[in-house]
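pasting for ref
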Amino acid sequence: TRGDLAGADKYYQQALAIQTDGTSDFALTLGNLGLLAQDRGDMEKADLYYHRALAINENLAPESLDTAQSLRNVGQLARDRGELDIAEDYYHRSLTIVERISPGSIEFARTLQALGHVALKRLDLSTAESYYRQALAIYTKLVPESHSAADCFNDLGNIALTRDDLAKAESNYQESLRISTRIAPDSALIA
């Protein structure tokens, strides 16, 4: 069932048991286990899974989207821990890879948005806005009616609200809501 983290964990553990250690599939499963652990608030376990996946991906293909995703996962964990310098470093490493092999892609936009989140946590609003606008430009071009685009409008609304620009905040929030309502009209996130 949806939201069954224990069930998901069980299936991922079963997948690990039949996969070969050191393969990209094994690393992907480790990354998914890291996401589950992070969702549960078990940052130590998430850290172990993410770093093990990163080591495998860097060994297999250091300049791959899989490695970039692993770097972004470790960056997300660091950001959640409040380790903004470490998060930013991992995000920049991810961005360098993605920019080289897939510029203008959804992965590139996600990494820009992640850097925007770090800047926003530091209250560096201009930098955050720049990253969010770059990400939004890509989302608007590739997936205009998506959760990613809606999230980016929401992020820009948060910046405007922090700046006390209520009209701009409302406009961005309305656009986020419009997209979210269109793509998932029954979503609990909209309520």
